[in-house]
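Weekly structure sync, notes
Attendees: PL (lead), two postdocs, one rotation student
Agenda item 3: pending single-chain targets
PL asked that the sequence for the first pending target be pasted directly into the notes so everyone works from the same version. It is reproduced below exactly as submitted, 83 residues in total.
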Amino acid sequence: MNPIIAMLKEHNISDAQINELFQTLTANPMAAMATIAQLGIPPEKLQQLMGLVMQNPNLIKEAVNELGLDMEKVEAAKAQLKQ
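Predicted structure, written out during the meeting:
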């Protein structure tokens, strides 16, 4: 299992919430940050998760594939973040 998804499940985040989070991430990365904040993950775990993603950005792609979401939307979201 993808470590991002595993960490979210560790904190009792439902599959529906995980799917919603990644759909929000692909559509509007800034809105995803607000969604993440509302999940109630302790700050130290959230920081650990962000560090993991920064060290290995492919984890997002793997999570999106594992969830069966559209990778083209993820690429568009990444491009939006760079602007």
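Discussion points:
- The helical segments are 3-10, 15-27, 29-37, 43-55, 58-67, 71-82.
- The CA atoms of residues 9 and 15 lie 8 Å apart.
Action: rotation student to compare against the earlier draft before next sync.
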